[in-house]
Amino acid sequence: MQLSPIEVRETITKEEFKREFLKPQKPVVIKRFIEDWPAFEKWDLDYMATVAGEKEVPLYDDRPVDYKDGFNEPHAKMKMSEYIDLLKREPTKFRIFLWNILKEVPELQKDFSYPDFGIKLMKGLPMLFFGGEDSYTFMHYDIDLANIFHFHFHGKKQVILFDQEQNDYLYKIPHSLITREDINFADPDYEKWPALKQAKGYIADLEHGNVLYMPEGYWHYMRYITPGFSMSLRAIARNPKNLGKALYNIFVMRHFDNMMRRMKGQAWIDGKNEKAVIKTHRKLGIS
Length: 287
What we know:
The chain is α+β, with helices and mostly antiparallel strands. It contains 7 helices and 13 strands. 28% of the residues lie in helices and 24% in strands.
């Protein structure tokens, strides 16, 4: 993979962000943007255990997709306090993602505000993501191809990004939002996955208080270097082509995929994985 560092800014104005990053759809990390938020001082794992400790949370790990699993179906559940104890005690693959804090812990909304980046944020969807040391997400892009602002808290995580122009090199699974799940994007095997050598992307490490902007439809792989969590705010895709893809994904693709899982079982999953390799290598002339 040909990875360039994501541009880093200490601070940024709305006008600078719109001109240099939003309009050209280019990622950026902003180091000092939320220091006036109460969350900047308050949000760590202990605080989350205090305010949300009794909440039961859905957990996901890095097991391959199984045909019996529904769309975004969790692999386990436990109380938030127990989960945070686990994060602090030992490495774990269990992660939380898409945890809506407005629904689960409304008081957390007092700790942050919706920044004016020059694009309208969806105020009903602030989502939290947690992970243990060395846990990671599969390489994927979001179903709605949204503009995403990712605010990181507690510890450090690494992010690798690709735009949609890199699809031919990433071993994308048909009728899904992910690549082959057996690819280790932190240390790829180029003999097994030779097309990845041609993929051009971005890389950065995020620390407490950093904000990452991910443009519409960007592929992202997140690896927690230490236990921690992040919050994402999102804005609807503005590119008509991306908006059309988002509507197709939401109203057609995911329902078709679920139907085929029910009809064909694991053969559907295995067939898609095989097609990802065949299609990628055929397009690039790799035998």
